TrEMBL record:
<feature type="region of interest" description="Disordered">
    <location>
        <begin position="1"/>
        <end position="124"/>
    </location>
</feature>
<dbReference type="GO" id="GO:0004540">
    <property type="term" value="F:RNA nuclease activity"/>
</dbReference>
<dbReference type="GO" id="GO:0046872">
    <property type="term" value="F:metal ion binding"/>
</dbReference>
<protein>
    <recommendedName>
        <fullName>EndoU domain-containing protein</fullName>
    </recommendedName>
</protein>
<dbReference type="GO" id="GO:0003723">
    <property type="term" value="F:RNA binding"/>
</dbReference>
<dbReference type="InterPro" id="IPR018998">
    <property type="entry name" value="EndoU_C"/>
</dbReference>
<comment type="subunit">
    <text>Monomer.</text>
</comment>
<keyword id="KW-0456">Lyase</keyword>
<dbReference type="GO" id="GO:0004519">
    <property type="term" value="F:endonuclease activity"/>
</dbReference>
<feature type="compositionally biased region" description="Basic and acidic residues">
    <location>
        <begin position="17"/>
        <end position="33"/>
    </location>
</feature>
<keyword id="KW-0540">Nuclease</keyword>
<keyword id="KW-0694">RNA-binding</keyword>
<keyword id="KW-0464">Manganese</keyword>
<comment type="similarity">
    <text>Belongs to the ENDOU family.</text>
</comment>
<feature type="compositionally biased region" description="Polar residues">
    <location>
        <begin position="82"/>
        <end position="97"/>
    </location>
</feature>
<dbReference type="Pfam" id="PF09412">
    <property type="entry name" value="XendoU"/>
</dbReference>
<dbReference type="InterPro" id="IPR039787">
    <property type="entry name" value="ENDOU"/>
</dbReference>
Length: 421
């Protein structure tokens, strides 16, 4: 208990100097076998669908001796299929947003040959998010949900995580609030681009006007993507961070997280102190790649970083993916085949294993929950960080998921979902 309290104090006050753990990239920890071999199923005898077996030949030359390319992945990676969420507080009537830009705005700047239908992300409120906290406007508190954890949930992390899934009323509905095109499947080593289009065909404008979504998106441009570059955080950006935590703290998933932590005597009964702890946990800077104050849990997990050896690390958020697609910075290259037999992902799948290039740098394997709310992901990953281990096998609706969680001392080094069949 003393070590636990000390860890919380360290997180709250910012942690102090850089430790030995801070010099390692946690995503480079992996099993004895190459993740690429395991993920792609090369050690399996499972047959592939006939049309996929004959689609493409692939080459390994580019990847030989490059285990680091798969350091963001776990040996048990799978794919599975998602059924539609049963509820959403925001059901957009928008079907296919226009691909035509406004006459007074510049057309889309895209790279490559992919030109999906999409709309620009509204940014009219972003500047106001940088104002002093007491001058900002927030949503009303969400009080219609029971956010008290049950005895079973307190005893079983998986039950608690599934409860969070049920509380995410802000989760989007596939083909209603957005649409994706998964393209074709591939193995990790495969070099061919298996997606003729971008991953996101369109996302409704209404999505970006939801308070937690909008505030989350406004944070994404605060970071230097190059790992090892010191981050400079302005006072306005700190206000933006704290205001985001304030906004999500009014939602059911974060209220449930607080009740859970309090029930475990992990936080005090003061909700304001809890918010400050959450701000420090996700936004305080620490060392990564040999440079102090160059990274944070939020930047790594949700924004992504580019290593000096030209690999993408982190980057597990669908909103960041969409935003970067609209800028022409991402080339989606297809989904990764399930290691074992499973459903082929389609437009309703909300847990994807994919490959893409970001700013010309390859992310050979990445996994992300599509359409979930920012408050859900923050609550889920925080819960697993405090009460789970490196592997957290849980149930999220129709998904069997392993939430992989790496620590840098008492900080979140990386956390991301892995689909399990």
């Amino acid at each position: 208990m003393d070590d636990l309290i000390k860890g919380l104090i360290d997180v709250t006050i910012g942690g102090g100097g850089r430790r030995e753990e801070d010099r390692r990239d946690p995503e480079e920890e992996r099993g004895d076998r190459s993740w690429a071999t395991v993920v792609s199923g090369e050690d399996d005898d499972q047959p592939r669908p006939h049309h996929q077996q004959q689609q493409h030949q692939w080459s390994k030359e580019r990847w030989e001796g490059n285990d680091q390319s798969y350091s963001d992945y776990d040996r048990d990676h799978r794919c599975s299929k998602q059924s539609r969420p049963q509820h959403s507080d925001y059901q957009s009537e928008n079907v296919y947003p226009s691909n035509k830009p406004d006459e007074d705005e510049d057309p889309w700047e895209t790279v490559g040959h992919k030109h999906p239908k999409r709309t620009k992300v509204p940014k009219e409120n972003w500047n106001s998010y940088k104002q002093p906290l007491d001058e900002q406007e927030y949503s009303n508190e969400v009080n219609e949900y029971d956010v008290e954890p049950s005895r079973d949930e307190l005893a079983d992390l998986s039950r608690a995580c599934e409860r969070l899934w049920d509380l995410d009323s802000n989760r989007l509905i596939p083909n209603k609030d957005y649409q994706i095109d998964c393209g074709e499947g591939k193995k990790v080593h495969q070099q061919e681009d298996m997606a003729q289009e971008s991953l996101f065909t369109w996302v409704s404008d209404d999505v970006f006007r939801r308070p937690t979504f909008s505030r989350f998106l406004s944070l994404l441009d605060n970071y230097n993507p190059h790992q090892g570059s010191k981050e400079v955080v302005t006072s306005e950006e700190r206000q933006e961070q704290a205001a985001f935590i304030e906004e999500i703290s009014r939602t059911a998933p974060i209220k449930y997280l607080y009740k859970y932590l309090a029930s475990k005597n992990h936080v005090s009964g003061n909700y304001q102190e809890f918010k400050r702890m959450m701000t420090n946990l996700w936004f305080d800077l620490y060392g990564r790649g040999g440079t102090s104050a160059s990274s944070s849990a939020f930047e790594h997990v949700f924004v992504g970083e580019i290593k000096q050896d030209k690999e993408v690390s982190g980057f597990h958020n669908w909103l960041q993916f969409y935003l970067e697609e609209t800028k022409g910075n991402i080339d989606y290259q297809g989904y990764i085949w399930p290691r074992r037999r499973g459903e082929i992902p389609d437009s309703e799948t909300q847990l994807l294993t994919i490959q893409f290039e970001w700013n010309g740098v390859l992310k050979s394997v990445s996994s992300t929950l599509v359409g979930v709310s920012p408050e859900f992901e923050i609550a889920l990953y925080t819960l697993c960080f405090y009460f789970g281990g490196e592997d957290n096998r849980i149930q999220l609706g129709p998904y069997n998921v392993n939430i992989k969680c790496y620590r840098l001392g008492d900080r979140i080094g990386s956390v991301f979902p892995i689909a399990e069949c």
